[in-house]
Amino acid sequence: MKNFFSDKVFFKNLFLIIIPIIFQELLNSSVNLVDNFMIGQLGEVAITSVGLANQIFFVFNLILFGVNSGAAVFVGQYFGKGDFTGIHKVIGLGVILSLLNALIFVSAIYFAPEFLMSLYSKDSAVIQEGINYLQIIAPAYFVIAFIMAINSALKAIRKTHFPMITTFIALLTNIALNYLFIFKLGYGVKGAAMATLCARCVELTSQLLIVFSKKLPILTNIKNYFKFNKAFVKSYFDVCTPVILNEVFWSIGISVCNMAYKFSGTDAQSAVQITGTVQNLFTVMGVAIGGGCGILLSNVLGYGDIEKAKDYSKKCMVLTVIISSIMGVILIVLSPYIIDIFKVKDLVKDYTHKLLMIVAFGIVFKTYNYTTIVGILRSGGDTKYTAILDFSSVWFIGIPMAFLGAYFLDLPIYITYAMVYSEEIVKGFFSSARVKKNKWAKSLV
């Protein structure tokens, strides 16, 4: 352990990257927490409808993450190599794919909103409120597509503090407008959607102002973003297609698990939505380490130091376990106080507390898997293995457990939730074994 903490270069580089990521992820999670807290004042129907409507955004967002984390592998390695022409081409292709993704989801929201909401709920009041929310917030999907593409590129070139700043601006805007639209003007769930849409527009505007005013290296003549040939596109999709498919099928799988929870009732679904929001706050540290690990390793691999990449990967895994264990203990202590801020039934609070205890135990496995899969294996382009692993764990373990518990056995939500969470333990075994083989440690550029 003494040897572990003695590598000052590793810790300096990692923490310079992850500290802004930690704050950005905290701010992102705070946006969700504030939304849920304010909407939670309107009752179980409101918080459930918005939470379930955001399941559509969850799938959209993870596909975006797949597109941009695949692109970030190349941007990070091109940055390590000092090839900015390559960086610009990757950004251009990433933006095109992100906007296409947004177009598909927005079309589905406007043409089939009732079908989408009925996938997650049997409650007509929840479905109608969810439709109201979705149809207002839909244009934000295009805005978010731009935001994520730019943020991903900025992080990959180690400018992680700029996404943190723009996320902070979005948080302040969202809080102020939530208060105005939900309570002062009485728009309720529709007001929450209006506030989020406005906040995202402000975030994109501030992001573009920073990029242009600072003349950041991701900026170039617009034509340079689209100067890619067939060979480049092929190499991009060879690495990125498994990542994109990974996120598509994994996010749909998680969403199907949430469909199963509707058989446990609206109260159980409310508890799951609150738990998800709180869980995001407590996984921030582990996710930041995983994200920072991916940036650091892709830069190191870009300039060809394979042995250093292997060494750094081991340190990142150890650090993730230490930090996430501490966060799990903190969650156990704070969970009763966090639950009390939501104005929901005592039954919902009881469910939520039990679910958070499961999260407190499982957080180590969840963040460890993020570091090994997203941070390490993807950094060297080992994307096919990670796609198969994620797909198998959610579709062959998570989904069967969700329907077995909620539909066939009619178990309490906290037992079903624990059954689903078991997939993280299985996934951790296989991801760890893959990292140790070192097949991922390759330079792609």
Which SSEs are present, and which pair or pack?
Layout: H1 2-5, H2 8-40, H3 44-81, H4 84-111, H5 113-118, H6 124-137, H7 140-156, H8 161-184, H9 189-214, H10 230-260, H11 266-282, H12 284-302, H13 306-339, H14 346-377, H15 383-408, H16 413-437
Helix pairs in contact: 2-8, 2-11, 2-12, 3-4, 3-6, 3-7, 3-10, 3-11, 3-12, 4-7, 6-9, 7-9, 8-9, 10-15, 11-14, 12-13, 12-14, 13-14, 14-16, 15-16
Structure description:
The protein has 445 residues and is an all-alpha fold. The protein has one domain (2-437). It has 16 helices and no strands. The longest helix is centred in the N-terminal third of the chain and has 38 residues, at 44-81. The mean pLDDT is 88.
Order of helices and strands: HHHHHHHHHHHHHHHH
Q: Tell me the span between the first and last alpha carbons.
A: 34 Å
Oligomer: single chain
What's the helical proportion of residues?
over 70%
Largest sheet descriptor: none
The overall average pLDDT, rounded, is 88
Radius of gyration: 21 Å
Name the structural class: mainly alpha
Beta strands, count: 0
